[in-house]
Specification:
It is built from 13 helices and 18 strands. Strands 3, 5, 6, 9, 10, 17 and 18 form a seven-stranded mixed beta sheet that branches. It has a six-stranded parallel beta sheet with strand order 13-12-11-14-15-16, sandwiched between helices. A three-stranded antiparallel beta sheet has the order 2-1-4, covered by helices on one side. Strand 12, helix 8 and strand 13 form a beta-alpha-beta unit. The longest helix has 13 residues. It is globular and about 60 Å long. The chain binds zinc ion.
Length: 348
C-alpha cells in the first residue's frame, strides 16, 4: 500500500437514508476491485430527476443507499487491464457501466449491456467506475472550468434528451412536442433543435423553464396539460399531431399526452422512468404511433456529444441553475424537490 492510498482511506459521500433524509457521511474510499476498474477524482457531479423518486419515497429505499450516477473528472488510478484511459485524463461515463463489446453494446444499447453495472456512488469526491475501457470516454484535453457543467450534463441528462429525440425519429423540418420541462425535457428541446426540427413545442407552465426552453430552441410553448394539452397540440398542427413527441416525465398523464399528441405514423421517444404507467392495447393499436425508449444508451452518444460541447456548438450545462459545494448536497435535493432549482450541480 502506497502513501497515496493511505491518504484517502475514507471520503465523505452522499447517502439516502429514507424519504427526504440525505446525509453526507464518511465511508471507505473506493479502490480498484477488478483489473477493469478505474478510480475517478470527480470534478463535478449532480442530482438527477430520477434521484427524486426514492428521495420522495415514491420508489422504496431498502436501507441507507449511496447516491449519484452522473459524473466527470480526472482519472486517478486504473486497473491492470485498462487500456483506453489513463491517469490524468478528463473522462465522462454513463450511469450504466458497459463493456461496449457485447452484442447489445455493438447494437448501440450499452444501457442493456450483458455485463452492465449501475453506477450509484457518484455524489462523492472519488468514484470507482467498473468496465472502464467500455464506459469512459476521454475529452481531447483537460477542459477549462466553464466547460465542466456542459461535459457533466453528457453523463446522463443530455445523453437522455438526445436519445429521446433520436428515439422519436426527429428529422430536419419536422414538428416535435416535448412533454416535461425538467432538465431532460429542456435538453430534449436542445437536441431537437440540433437535429434541425423546424417546430419545437415545449409543454411547460413554469416561466423560467419556458425561458430556457426558448433559449434552447423551442418555437412554441403550451401551458395546458392532459386532454387540454393534447387539444392545443392538435390545434397547432392542423388537427393531425406532431411528427415526434419526447416523453420526459414518466407518469400516466405525460405518457398519454405524448402518445395522443403524435400523428399517425409518428414516433414517441420515452425516457421518463415510468411510474405506474399502463397502456391500453386497443388505443395503441389505432394510434399508429411508434414507441421507443428506455434507459438511454448514453455511451453510444458520448463521442458526438463531447465533440459538440468541445467545439461550442451546444451548451447543455445551462440546465444547472444551482451550484453547491458537495457537502451541501441535502440542500441540492431540497431545492429540486421543491422545484426551486431545475438541476443542482455539486462540486467536491
Ligand atoms: Zn456490453
Amino acid at each position: 500500500m502506497n502513501t497515496q492510498t493511505i491518504g484517502r482511506q475514507t471520503i465523505r459521500g452522499t447517502v439516502l437514508y429514507g424519504p427526504r433524509d440525505i446525509r453526507f457521511e464518511e465511508r471507505d474510499a473506493p479502490t480498484i476491485l477488478e483489473p477493469t476498474d478505474a478510480i475517478i477524482r470527480i470534478s463535478a457531479t449532480c442530482v438527477c430527476g430520477s434521484d427524486l423518486w426514492p428521495y420522495r419515497g415514491i420508489s422504496p429505499v431498502a436501507g441507507p443507499s449511496p447516491m449519484g450516477h452522473e459524473y466527470c473528472g480526472i482519472v486517478d488510478e486504473v486497473g491492470s487491464a485498462v487500456m483506453s484511459v489513463k491517469p490524468g485524463q478528463f473522462v465522462i461515463g454513463s450511469f450504466f457501466a458497459s463493456d461496449n463489446t457485447c452484442r447489445n453494446c455493438q447494437a448501440g444499447y450499452q444501457s442493456s449491456c450483458q455485463h452492465k453495472e449501475f453506477v450509484t456512488t457518484a455524489q462523492a469526491p472519488l468514484l470507482r467506475v467498473p468496465l472502464a475501457d467500455g464506459t469512459l470516454v476521454a475529452t481531447p484535453g483537460v477542459p477549462s472550468g466553464d466547460l465542466v457543467p456542459s461535459l457533466l450534463a453528457l453523463s446522463d441528462v443530455m445523453g437522455t434528451g438526445w436519445f429521446a429525440a433520436h428515439a422519436a425519429n426527429v428529422k430536419p423540418g419536422k414538428t416535435v412536442v416535448v412533454v416535461g420541462d425538467g432538465a431532460v425535457g429542456l435538453l430534449g428541446v436542445l437536441s431537437a433543435r440540433q437535429m434541425a426540427a423546424k417546430r419545437i413545442i415545449a409543454m411547460s407552465r413554469n416561466e423560467s423553464r419556458q425561458k430556457l426552453a426558448r433559449e434552447f430552441g423551442a418555437t412554441d410553448i403550451v401551458t395546458q396539460r392532459g386532454d387540454e394539452g393534447v387539444a392545443r397540440i392538435k390545434e397547432l398542427t392542423k388537427g393531425i399531431g406532431a411528427d415526434s413527441a419526447l416523453e420526459c416525465v414518466g407518469t400516466q398523464e405525460s405518457m398519454m399526452q405524448a402518445i395522443r399528441s403524435t400523428r399517425p405514423g409518428g414516433s414517441v421517444g420515452y425516457v421518463g422512468v415510468p411510474h405506474g404507467v399502463e397502456l391500453n392495447g386497443e388505443e395503441l393499436f389505432y394510434s399508429h404511433v411508434h414507441l421507443h425508449g428506455g434507459p438511454a444508451p448514453v455511451r453510444r452518444f458520448l463521442p458526438v456529444l463531447i465533440d459538440l460541447v468541445w467545439n461550442g456548438k451546444i451548451n447543455p450545462g445551462k440546465v444547472f441553475d444551482l451550484i453547491l459545494p458537495l457537502d451541501q448536497v441535502a440542500e441540492g435535493y431540497r431545492a429540486m424537490d421543491e422545484r426551486r432549482a431545475i438541476k443542482t450541480l455539486l462540486r467536491p
